[in-house]
Design a protein that fits this description.
Length: 418
């Protein structure tokens, strides 16, 4: 009989299933994992240190580049922490816009997660399906901010600008598309951004049904996920897990319900919770979260349609005046110049603001010494705590299950290494 040796295996950082730059050092007993040691820091860019050298608005675009799949949610925690220090009141319309885009971002994140997770496990089709839907939501990002990925749309005091009345359209026939095909592609782009998003929310539940048809009762999918990476509720709390990782273990903890921010307390939605704490439960939780996000977006659209108003606070010591004001009023010109050159001064003190990010609790802690830059910024990234649980979740499983556990943790390295 062949002798089984213990050996050490490098998994990543070039491995396609390592989701970026994770280096896992696996101690194996044949095919079984005895110990998994994650080595991180290969994507460290010093975001927290860089924030100390820039004024508050200049550091905002760095947030998009942390978890680069959940761009606006990162920005949200950042601007909320700044607003807490400034004791700034945000217009109600801006709050609804933020919540709507937080939920669009949650769907974007979960679509990439289900595409990549299924691809890692061996289901090719899901990846293509998920990217089909992401394309529409990326167009929503582009309509409000001009960028498909790194939006930098939120601002301390509100959002950069109101929702546009028109959507970008496909133009001109080409050798790939006839005039009729172009017209069909532009079918849902005749109205405003809200009309486009509403059209998406009407179609989306059908798409989620398609995903569930492909995966939920799929024999291979269940064999790969059920009882893999089990986390007991007690251990999940001790490890500091948040978001779907914690709810999958049966603990109903969601900041949108337990510590409501912006207008979440006015909206009607449910928190999906798992029972077994395995990868399959976390899959079901995230699938249901997409449906609940869809519900929230519908409610936001309904409110935004009937309630026009300002989307930026009127305090021009913090928010820039309009271009028209700036060209007509000397005071406004001075405000604009001061904001563009040195930013705004933030009172001395400390503040922590957290949002229910698609991956868990994403928090920003500011320490201010009264200057126009933070004295210190600390980012509480959900993925960091999740990766710390990796060793415990894969111990005793096969090598192929490591890929499943990395997928179920929904890891993005921008926020872990930051």
């Amino acid at each position: 009989m062949a002798e089984i040796r213990n050996f050490t295996l490098n998994f990543g950082p070039q491995h396609p299933a390592a989701h970026g730059v994770l280096r896992l050092i696996l101690e194996m007993d044949g095919e079984m994992i005895v110990r998994a040691d994650p080595h991180i820091g290969l994507l460290h860019r010093g975001t927290e240190k860089l924030a100390e050298t820039k004024h508050y608005v200049q550091s905002l675009p760095y947030m998009d580049r942390l978890d680069y799949v959940s761009m606006m949610c990162n920005e949200h925690a950042y601007v909320m922490a700044a607003e807490k220090l400034l004791q700034l009141e945000v217009p109600i319309r801006a709050q609804y816009i933020r919540v709507m885009f937080d939920e669009i971002t949650r769907i974007l994140n979960h679509l990439l997660w289900i595409g990549a997770h299924a691809l890692d496990v061996g289901a090719m089709t899901m990846f293509i399906y998920a990217f089909r839907e992401r394309e529409d939501l990326m167009d929503c990002y582009e309509a409000v901010s001009g960028a498909r990925l790194h939006a930098a749309y939120y601002r301390p005091g509100g959002v950069y600008r109101d929702l546009p009345d028109t959507m970008p359209r496909f133009e001109g026939e080409s050798k790939w598309h006839s005039a009729d095909e172009i017209q069909a592609l532009n079918g849902n782009r005749d109205g405003s951004l809200l009309d486009f998003i509403e059209d998406f929310t009407n179609r989306f539940p059908g798409y989620v049904d398609e995903y569930e048809t492909l995966l939920t009762d799929n024999r291979i999918w269940k064999q790969r996920l059920v009882d893999v990476g089990v986390m007991s509720p007690e251990r999940a709390l001790q490890m500091g897990l948040t978001g779907p990782m914690l709810r999958g273990s049966g603990i109903e903890w969601d900041l949108r319900k337990k510590q409501p921010y912006e207008v979440y307390d006015r909206l009607d939605f449910d928190i999906p919770v798992g029972t077994n704490g395995d990868s399959y439960d976390r899959y079901l939780v995230r699938m249901e979260e997409m449906r609940q996000s869809n519900r929230i977006i519908k409610q936001c659209i309904e409110w935004l349609r009937h309630n026009p108003g300002p989307v930026m606070a009127e305090n021009h010591k913090v928010t820039p005046p309009s271009r028209l004001q700036m060209k007509e009023d000397m005071e406004a010109l001075i405000h604009h110049f001061k904001l563009a050159s040195e930013g705004f001064m933030v009172p001395e003190g400390e503040a922590y603001a957290a949002v229910e990010h698609p991956k868990g609790e994403f928090g920003i802690y500011f320490l201010s010494d009264g200057a126009n830059k933070p004295y210190r910024m600390k980012i509480r990234a959900p993925g960091f705590a999740h990766l710390a649980a990796m060793d415990e979740m894969v111990r005793g499983h096969m090598l192929a299950d490591v890929v499943t556990v990395i997928g179920t943790q929904d890891i993005v390295f921008g926020e872990i290494d930051r």
